[in-house]
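Proteins fold reproducibly. Next comes an illustrative record:
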Amino acid sequence: MSEKTIAISRRRLLQAGAALGGAYLLPGIMNAVWAAGSDGPEQSQVKVGFIPLTDCASVVMASVKGFDKKYGITIVPSKEASWAAVRDKMVSGELDAAHVLYGLVYGLEMGIAGKQQSMANLMTLNNNGQAISLSMDLAKQGVTEASGLKKLIAGKAPGTFTFAHTFPTGTHAMWLYYWLANAGIHPFNDVRTVVVPPPQMVMNMRIGNMVGFCVGEPWNQRAINDGIGYTAATSQSIWPDHPEKILGTRSAWVEQNPNTARALVAAILETSRWIDANDDNRRETASVLAGRAYLNTKADYLTGRMLGQYDNGLGKKWQDEHAMHFFRDGEVTFPWLSDGMWFLTQHRRWGLLDHDPDYLAIARRINRIDVYQQAASAVGNVAVPANHMRSSRLMDGSTWNGSNPAAYAASFAIKR
């Protein structure tokens, strides 16, 4: 690499960091905790759970493409039936780590998603790429967006309409609640909400168990292809470039296997960069994920939205600039403290927490930036931000930057 190329790359990384509210440290500048080859992984195999969703891509492809072997481990992907199963197996130690909902890990730490367990978030696996689907029955009644839904619900008894998400403290619940509340619909008082595993969403809408759901892909696209639903909103329309799934594990596992944790993050981090490198890699990823061992569906159901090509099922088509991303020069994968804190504010908003916790201290405890930095150094050419908070603007015009979480949690007109 020429000196000119290095200089351009360095400048671009610093510009990216400035845009996010803080400078970036280049791996060569970091005080690396680990030197390659000096200490091997404690485990040769790492069992990583996943739910059949498009955003499990980096876990699966790390194994399929052999990125794991480069760092001295073998990732064994384990297909799970529900987020509750992921939770139970992760806590029991049957799984070493998992592709998991951000809010599930935080909920376990707080004792509101099951028995309290000290947890760790090793990295973010993706941004964006979820959606809220409504049934075609609603479309026939003239409901094409949230405002129309509000008018329809206003004329019915509370709880007449049922909506589904995937886990009480998870991301899909928070996107659904936020979207409904932004339209003036109280997600607990005006409608009924239920928990349904992702692979069962389409079937349950088909038989009329709910009129809407929030879930990851490919199940929103599947609802369109099956002619039973349409995309009313993408999760990125609620929060552009929002955090979604993370690489979660027990804190004890990280303490017992620090070198394995570093190797696991490094392998998935390098895979994430590979997926985002070009559209051909995304197409290959979609083809692999469609296989029986993973999502067991048609590759066409995955490829379009992986490439940012959206069709809402009612005739609207667009190229989404905030489609699912896995790396984006390290901006996606870094475990931002403010991201974790946001989920705590929503847990507080909806009464899942009965008091304001020490938001920042909890995020610092769970989000293992130390492990991530070591892995980024091992991979090389991964930008690591000096500022561990980022600023985001959500659909209601509110700005979230982690500066005053208690006030933010209390600021919403609709809450519980």
Q: What stands out?
A: Residues 1-36 have pLDDT under 50 and may be disordered. The chain has 19 helices and 16 strands. Residues 3-124+242-297+325-410 form a domain with the D-Maltodextrin-Binding Protein; domain 2 fold (CATH 3.40.190.10). The CA atoms of residues 17 and 23 lie 4 Å apart.
